């Protein structure tokens, strides 16, 4: 027999929780604290589950019945869309916007579509077993692409974590999947020249002798600002605040997902002035010499470094290592100031907020010191 509004209102809490049945599986759950919630039980992936529609009186009896009806109508559709590929696409819609690098977004999605979908894409997530996933990642490893195997294993685990959080499954077979793979080769640090004035002089001289002006200036900017390559090549003119002589990189372009301030030394401002003839009409600071209103390619700085004869000796990322070493060993600036300018992620949120506000004047002084150090090294 269906509930009436009066029965719902008059339902009193007892020492133990209890239910009042309505119709078609909907019921009112009354807790010992007196809260009343609308619920129904159903089977999902061969397991018992509970759906909650809200608390009374915020959700009325009529509203609960309507929500319950819509939910029952949607159960069949939901079962049809619980295959691994569909669940992965749902996960990717949440995950990909959090990745700052567009290239990484593409790679993340392609890893699943290329290596996972052919084997398990059409299977429902509760049908996929541990042995299937072990065979999947080990088959990739047998092809000699062990780093890819590790990436696939990690991304499978993330998709299945999402499926658990979404209530599609209670547990999953991809937990710690990387342990079935052989150990990875130890990743070597990014190559960087020795932090001596003589080595820096040779590198800067080689850069300044490079004929293509935009790429030459790009490497010099990388040396003076020691930002990440992706942050440099995507640099937009609108991010520069000339009145304060700073470059503010928005959070969506930062690896740490926080905006980052780069004080601009006089040397950097001079390089920006030199670029004006090449980037007129473009929104980008480092306008591509070959593509209209597009920045230079992210891989181009490293290509130029290799052309200059520095393969295995220096990388684009190596300018960060060089600046960090010199600043820590040869300057009087505090380690926290240096780390803040390197935009390394702070684990302490309160400390991070404090450092962002407190260290800006010191970072401005430090960036001027660094540019002057580079000039002195080149002149020695």
Annotate the secondary structure layout.
Layout: H1 5-10, E1 18-21, E2 26-30, E3 36-44, E4 47-56, H2 61-80, H3 84-95, H4 102-115, H5 117-120, H6 130-142, H7 146-165, H8 197-208, H9 213-225, H10 229-233, E5 240-241, E6 246-249, E7 260-263, H11 266-279, H12 300-307, H13 318-330, H14 335-342, H15 349-358, H16 360-379
Antiparallel strand pairs: 1-2, 2-3, 3-4, 5-6, 6-7
Commentary on this structure:
There is one protein chain. The chain is an alpha+beta fold. The chain folds into 3 domains: 5-77, Integrase, DNA-binding domain (Double Stranded RNA Binding Domain, 2-Layer Sandwich); 84-180, Tyrosine recombinase, N-terminal domain (DNA polymerase, domain 1, Orthogonal Bundle), CATH 1.10.150.130; 197-379, hpI Integrase, Chain A (Orthogonal Bundle), CATH 1.10.443. The protein is built from 16 helices and 7 strands. It has helices at 5-10, 61-80, 84-95, 102-115, 117-120, 130-142, 146-165, 197-208, 213-225, 229-233, 266-279, 300-307, 318-330, 335-342, 349-358, 360-379, and strands at residues 18-21, 26-30, 36-44, 47-56, 240-241, 246-249, 260-263. Strands 1-2-3-4 form a 4-stranded antiparallel β-sheet. α3 (84-95) packs across α7 and α4 crosses α7. It starts with a helix and ends with a helix. Residues 76-81 and 349-357 have low confidence and may be disordered.
